Amino acid sequence: MHQEIKKYLEKNKDRFVDELIELLKIPSVSADPKFNHEVLKTAEAVEQRLKEAGADLTEICLTKGHPIVYGEKIINPDLPTILVYGHYDVQPADPIALWDSPPFEPVIKTTPIHPEGAIFARGACDDKGQMYMHVKAFEAMIQTGTLPCNVKFMIEGEEEVGSENLETFVKENKERLKADVILISDTGIIANDIPSITTGLRGLSYVEVEVTGPNRDLHSGLYGGGVPNPINVLAKMIASLHDEHKHITIEGFYDNVEELWAEERAEMAKAPFNEEEFKQSIGLKDVEGEAGYTTPERLSIRPTLDVNGIWGGYTGEGAKTVIPSKAYAKISMRLVPHQSSDEITKKFTEHFLKIAPKSVDVKVTPHHGGEPYVTPINFPGYVAAAKAMEDTFGKKPVPVRSGGSIPIVALFEKELGLKSVLMGFGLDSDAIHSPNEHFGLFNYFKGIETIPLFYKYFTEINK
Ligand code: BES
Ligand code: MN
Ligand code: MN
To answer: Which atom of ligand 1 is the closest one to the Cα of 407?
Structure first.
């Protein structure tokens, strides 16, 4: 079976790339209503591609927000069913000035890490490129007569903004979404010669804070020194959220945090990681983080608190002597197993209001969040993915917990009772969410080649 898939892929490589490039040209930015029409156009394109690839039934499921594309091919109800999840929406391209080529005009260039070439465009890796690997792998299985089981596709357009409407869709479509496993390519591997499978995702709690001092902006000479400056106050409040060991100071923040056994940490430490290369790759002189944990641990099994944006006062040209009335910040907290997004948001809010000096008013507004997720490495989905990757990479994949979040994955488990296999093919250096996002052609083809093997092994294990 595998030889047939490889031959089919070899023959159709150029077209597979061209088709992805067409999809990447549509700016499906879910966060900005300005792009609503393009988001819809992308959904229609994805539905069309699923149909062409061989789905028997496809549907654009409208929601209160962006639509969900559904597709299926049921060959025999007695065989296992794989539910493929992905997202066709992308992050905003800003800051556009920092892109070397326009974000929605894909180009192929080589890089030291991608000598075979990579497609540069917003969404190339996250997640249009990775989602499209599944459509092409499906096509390849249909065309070579090797599809071994049933498949359902659920491709959403709101992952980058919190998947709120997918949550409703999942709750209302449990029967239609019945499956044996969920397969997702929206994560990465350690390196092109070090395959890995993601076994955990962090959860997320996200808040916006507003600090109000005087009821209007004031002359900083006439009033300065005698009134609270909300930016100074906010900066101090934020600084106090970590102690000198970089522990988060919010009461109860670590209450339910899962502490890993020494054996498990030792096992994790076996995954290749080079701190010098890590620093160099992002232009850092030194790393920083919670005392008592290694960099890979800080990036995956420990919870965090980070300011994502902070603003207020005068930021235009030249100097303006002013004490602003208001200051703002957006703050994210990444969560690990057994922390709950709602509880952490509540604890943050209580703490933040408590530490505010009497001289200011503080408002905390919660945004979307999500729960953390872990998978065991002995369930059939993981075993099948590991075998598939071992075949195509020639090496056993390493299990790794990721620091990123895909909030809907925990919800799938809760609502559908299904585990997800996080078999992604991106690299950390692919600059997802950043200017010059790209996806290696090696990775794109490797994904298309590996996915059919997952189908094969998963079906064999579950027969
Ligand atoms: N695909 C990413 C998450 C990811 C990337 C996980 C790489 C592991 C490795 C996803 O699209 C994403 O960006 N998620 C957001 C959360 C969402 C609520 C905006 C994140 O992690 O910030
Ligand atoms: Mn993604
Ligand atoms: Mn993303």
So the answer is: 18
Atom 17 of ligand 1, residue of closest alpha carbon: 160
Ranges of each domain in the chain? 2-201+373-462, 203-257+303-370
Res. 1: pLDDT tops 80: no
Q: How far is CA 150 from the centre of its chain?
A: 26
Which among 198, 213, 132 is positioned nearest to 423, based on CA atoms?
A: 198
Q: Which atom of ligand 1 is nearest to the CA of 368?
A: 18
For 165-182, write each residue's pLDDT tens digit.
999 999 999 999 999 999
Q: What are phi and psi of 324, to 5 degrees?
A: -70, 160
User: How far is the C-alpha of 304 from the C-alpha of 97, rounded, in Å?
Assistant: 30
Judge if pTM exceeds 0.85: yes
Please state, in angstroms and rounded to a whole number, the distance separating the CA atoms of residues 114 and 279.
20
Rounded distance between C-alpha atoms, residue 43 and residue 155, angstroms: 8
Around ligand 1, the residues with Cβ closer than 6 Å are 126-127, 159-160, 162, 186-188, 204, 370, 402, 404-407
Nearest to 438 by CA among 50, 42, 101: 101
Distance 406 CA to ligand 3 centre (A): 8
Are the C-beta atoms of 52 and 132 separated by less than 8 Å? no
**pLDDT tens, 197-250?**
999 999 999 999 999 999 999 999 999 999 999 999 999 999 999 999 999 999
* CATH entry 3.30.2350.10 includes domain 2-201+373-462: no
Out of 3.30.2290.10, 3.90.1150.10, 2.40.30.10, 3.30.70.360, the CATH code matching 203-257+303-370 is 3.30.70.360
